[in-house]
């Protein structure tokens, strides 16, 4: 059974019908197309569109995640710099020594 709720678009409802029919007919596109009164080519085109849409959504989420990570890194660097600015001379020296020990960089 297809469950329509307010906000569900006709496009999304169509997608649900096609995917449920495919499942019902064991992914047999010919039987699915016949039962829905559409061509196998239409089913192929719809499935390709669903994949592209999901791929696009993934890429958008990936880009947003990368943007948020850059913002967080910038915030972390800003906090580190603010902290360093508020240190006394001795604290800065101790911090620099700790950073050089913890740093994975090779010493010359």
How would you describe what is shown here?
The chain has 4 helices and no strands. Helix 1 packs across helix 2. The radius of gyration is 28 Å and the shape is rod-shaped. The mean pLDDT is 81.
What would a concise description of this structure say?
With 108 residues, the protein is mostly helical. Helices cover 77% and strands 0% of the residues. The protein has a single domain (10-101), classed as Arc Repressor Mutant, subunit A (Orthogonal Bundle).
Report the uncertain regions.
none
Percent range for β-strand residues? under 5%
- Give me the count of strands: 0
Largest sheet: none
Shape: rod-shaped
Annotated CATH homologous superfamily: Homeodomain-like
The name of the CATH topology is Arc Repressor Mutant, subunit A
Helix/strand/pairing category:
mainly alpha
Q: Calculate Rg over CA atoms.
A: 28 Å
Any idea how many domains? 1
CATH class: Mainly Alpha
Q: What is the CATH architecture annotation?
A: Orthogonal Bundle
Secondary-structure element pattern, one letter each: HHHH
- Helicity, in percent? over 70%
Total helical segments? 4
Kindly, what is the distance between the CA atoms of the first and last residues, rounded to a whole number of angstroms? 70 Å
The overall pLDDT, averaged over residues, is 81
Strand-helix topology:
Layout: H1 10-24, H2 29-36, H3 40-85, H4 89-102
List keywords for this structure.
108 residues, mainly alpha, Arc Repressor Mutant, subunit A
């Amino acid at each position: 059974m297809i469950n329509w709720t307010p906000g569900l678009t006709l496009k999304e409802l169509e997608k649900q019908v096609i995917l449920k029919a495919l499942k019902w007919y064991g992914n047999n596109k010919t039987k699915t197309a016949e039962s829905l009164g559409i061509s196998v080519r239409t089913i192929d085109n719809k499935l390709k569109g669903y994949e592209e849409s999901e791929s696009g959504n993934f890429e958008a989420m990936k880009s947003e995640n990368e943007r948020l990570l850059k913002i967080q890194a910038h915030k972390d660097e800003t906090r580190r710099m603010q902290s360093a600015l508020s240190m006394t001379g001795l604290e800065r020296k101790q911090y620099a020594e700790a950073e050089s020990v913890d740093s994975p960089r090779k010493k010359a």
